[in-house]
Amino acid sequence: MNFLDSGRAFTDNRIRAAPCEQGLSVALSSPLPSLAKRNLMHDDDEPVGRVLGRRQALILLGAAGATLAAAGSATASTTTSTPEVCTLDCVVKPEQMEGPYFVDERLNRSDIRSEPSTGQLVPGTPLVINFTIQQVRQQQCTALSGAMIDLWQCDAFGLYSDIPSQGSRGRRFLRGYQNTDQAGTARFTTILPGWYTGRTLHIHVKIRTIGTNGRPYEFTSQLYFTPEFGAAYLRTDPYRRKGPADTTNSRDSIYRNGGSQMLLRPQQSGTGYTADFAIGLDLSNTQVGRPD
Known about the structure:
- By secondary structure, the protein is mainly β.
- The protein has helices spanning 40-44, 54-61, 227-233, and strands at 13-19, 25-31, 50-51, 76-79, 85-88, 90-93, 95-96, 126-137, 140-143, 148-152, 175-179, 185-191, 202-210, 216-224, 267-269, 272-281.
- A hairpin with a 5-residue loop joins strand 13 (202-210) and strand 14.
């Protein structure tokens, strides 16, 4: 069953993240203001779910014979007690879904670079992201099909689509979703993002699926870039018109909550870049935000 077929209704509570352990966050609930009063940019930045720290990921995947690369490395490889091997960039725990807190355009498309009303592509260096989503259960990884992956971001100059305060109401560039296939994969074509005041370079990602208890689950986070890679591409067109970003990873409060495990490692491909990112989901914990 994919997420769109689940036909479930959701309550309207905000999920806020508070520090727990190094590299972790624990979710707390509080009432959401009305839709008219929401600050969409702020809500976009709210994490839902948490990235497991190295120790917790090892416990979940099976410590016997397991190896897990340090946070921020290209991939994390874990060998289970079976001959199968999990190759993951991060292991996460979704929260019971109580959103969404973003502009849910329901644009089913792989290439999110265009403005649907005109077909015009936004300027920027192409970036292809190949996602692999796996469910981690009983110290094994299995492909998770039918998971709904949303991707959205600002353009090369730091502007988001469909944000009235930015003058982009009704426009839908750099937004889209796909459902994972039988192998748990989905591919997006986008651009390297620009920047805006107070935030490091990032791309938003939301994964919606069904937990082992049959209820909707969501993981919302952000994908980041190394400071060296970001600084280099910001010196190229069209990004250099705005200059270097005013906030780096180390100064970004959201990045400091597990962001090092959400780093993309783009490789040059023609005139653009491509990056692979594998996420392991633990869908078994039905208590929202509780540490292991």
